[in-house]
Amino acid sequence: MRKRTDGRNRLVLFGLMMILLLIAGCGSEGEFEGNIDGTPSPPPTPDLTFTSADIPLPPFQASGVVDFEITHTGNCTYEFDLLFFQNQLPFAFLARGSGDFSGEVTVSLASMDYILDVNTACPWTVDIYGDVVAYAPPNRNPITGDCNCEGCCPGLGGVICVDGETFCADGSFLPESCVIQGCTAFGCPGCF
For residue 56, is the peptide bond before it cis, meaning its omega torsion is within 30 degrees of 0? Predict the structure, then answer.
């Protein structure tokens, strides 16, 4: 004799199936993009941004996986390279070409100091995402990039960094007053 199945059993079975579907959906490892109300999430904020207005570019410390979002506008040729800061040797050629460009390059970096080397006459922006920290030296001149060198080596071409030492651009030693005020040429230790 067969037992009669009533609607309650079907309802319980349906409820169990729904619970299993909900549990399976909650275990998804996919990334949720958007807000609960269905509106899209705002784009992530870059950890560091450089533009053509930031020349000379300061070095930065980076490690791990780092994304470089590069935008270049205009008909100029361009080169975006990532250099080791200490020896200025190339680590990665991020983008090269001519004309408009917009793209992303992902690089895995050892924990060190790096600097972007950008060669183009057109406007550009590089947004950097990852474990990066910019150096912000005190009293840096926004035009020359030098630190604490106000009034040093006038008429001698300003100051330069040679083998980690600051000199007047004509090769002469800094005046004592400039040494006392802490004049450091861009690129020398303490002025990046």
Answer: yes
Give the pTM.
0.55
Q: Name 119's bridge partners.
A: 79
Phi (first) and psi of residue 28, to 5 degrees: -60, 135
Q: Pick from 163, 159, 162, 164: which is nearest to 185 by CA?
A: 159
Check if the beta carbon of residue 111 is closer than 8 Å to that of residue 118: no
Provide the residue type at 44 as one letter.
P
Is residue 134 within 8 Å of 60, Cβ to Cβ? yes
pLDDT, block means (10 residues), the chain with 192 residues: 57 61 52 62 83 82 94 96 89 96 96 91 95 71 74 84 86 89 78 65
Which neighbouring-strand residues pair with 82? 92, 116
Kindly calculate the radius of gyration of the chain based on its CA atoms and give it in whole angstroms.
Answer: 28
| Nearest Cα to Cα of residue 117 among 161, 151, 83 | 83
Q: CB within 8 A of 154, min separation 6: which ones? A: none
- Best CA proximity match to 77, nearest among 96, 52, 102, 57: 96
Residue 123 to residues 30, 141, 146, Cα–Cα distance (Å): 37, 22, 24
